[in-house]
């Protein structure tokens, strides 16, 4: 019989029941992959993070991430949640933690302010895929119920990755964004063809001075119809905005705040920083705050 310490954490917010909920299993060393998947399915968040001891001396901690359906290589909001809990549990001062995840060994910045924390994760390599072909593009727009005239003409429909790829789709208005009601079965079928499970629709139509973009993310192929607020979409978005000349920057760094989740009542804010080299995006960091919703134990 194993007793597990489990938290439910809302990431990219300081307000309970906002942002993106993630499960965090603090002491996951003795769990099998099957048990991790069963726990993730039971908690039924878009992702659950499992904290594991290091298996070599080049990192401090390991993380694995599961949706209710499959293991995924990286997850932004579950990373924020896991390191937030770890910082609280071990009463950490501001520090940099090196974690090992499926996409590699990367730093995570823990920033302590009083008795609370914010967390900033460095994402994986920036990768741009060619803009999607006409047929794939038409199928995606039909599934999302977006007309050509509603698109932001500056924005190619393109797969971008910083560790976990997303299709980036720019549209003109926030009203259209919030009214989207996609055909989830169609999106899941398209994912099998394009080998990408997430569709991130965004707009730069923002009336808030502090917020540059608003977005929504759909990933039915991995059991997540809509993910409220995620780093693994807003991070690639930051690289995409720089790559396509949609924002001004100083040729060294570009930072912005992205809101997501408003349409489903779970608004949160992701802070994105893109480091540039010769005017091109080379590294992306995403960060934010978190709040504990509950803590419990599970015996299995």
From TrEMBL:
Per the record, the domain of life is Bacteria
Keywords in alphabetical order, please: Isomerase
Any idea of its EC number?
5.1.-.-
Q: Which Pfam families match?
A: PhzC-PhzF
GO molecular function annotations of the record:
isomerase activity
Which Gene3D superfamilies does the protein's record reference? Answer: Diaminopimelate Epimerase, Chain A, domain 1
Q: Which residues form the signal peptide?
A: none
Q: Which family does it belong to?
A: Belongs to the PhzF family.
Q: What is this protein called?
A: Putative isomerase YddE
């Amino acid at each position: 019989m194993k007793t597990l310490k489990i938290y439910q954490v809302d990431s990219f917010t300081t307000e309970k029941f906002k942002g993106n909920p993630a499960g965090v299993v603090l002491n996951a060393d003795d769990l099998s992959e099957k048990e991790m998947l069963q726990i993730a399915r039971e908690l039924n968040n878009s992702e659950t993070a499992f904290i594991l001891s290091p298996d070599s001396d080049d990192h401090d901690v390991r993380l694995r991430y599961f949706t209710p359906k499959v293991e995924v290589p990286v997850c932004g909001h579950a990373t924020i949640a896991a390191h937030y809990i770890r910082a609280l549990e071990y009463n950490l001062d501001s520090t940099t933690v090196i974690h090992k995840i499926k996409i590699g060994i990367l730093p995570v910045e823990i920033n302590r302010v009083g008795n609370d924390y914010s967390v900033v994760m460095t994402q994986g390599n920036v990768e741009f895929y060619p803009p999607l072909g006409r047929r794939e593009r038409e199928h995606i727009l039909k599934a999302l119920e977006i007309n050509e005239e509603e698109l932001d003409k500056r924005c190619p429909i393109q797969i971008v990755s910083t560790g976990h790829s997303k299709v980036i789709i720019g549209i003109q208005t926030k009203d259209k964004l919030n009214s989207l009601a996609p055909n989830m079965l169609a999106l899941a079928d398209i994912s099998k063809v394009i080998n990408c499970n997430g569709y991130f629709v965004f707009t730069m139509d923002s009336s808030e001075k502090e917020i540059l973009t608003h977005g929504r993310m759909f990933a039915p192929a991995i059991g997540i119809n809509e993910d409220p607020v995620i780093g693994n979409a807003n991070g690639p978005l930051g690289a995409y905005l720089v790559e396509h000349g949609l924002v001004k920057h100083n040729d060294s760094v570009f930072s912005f705040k992205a809101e997501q989740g408003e349409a489903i009542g779970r608004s949160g804010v992701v802070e994105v920083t893109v480091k540039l080299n010769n005017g091109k995006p080379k590294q992306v960091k995403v960060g934010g705050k978190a709040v504990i919703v509950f803590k419990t134990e599970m015996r299995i």
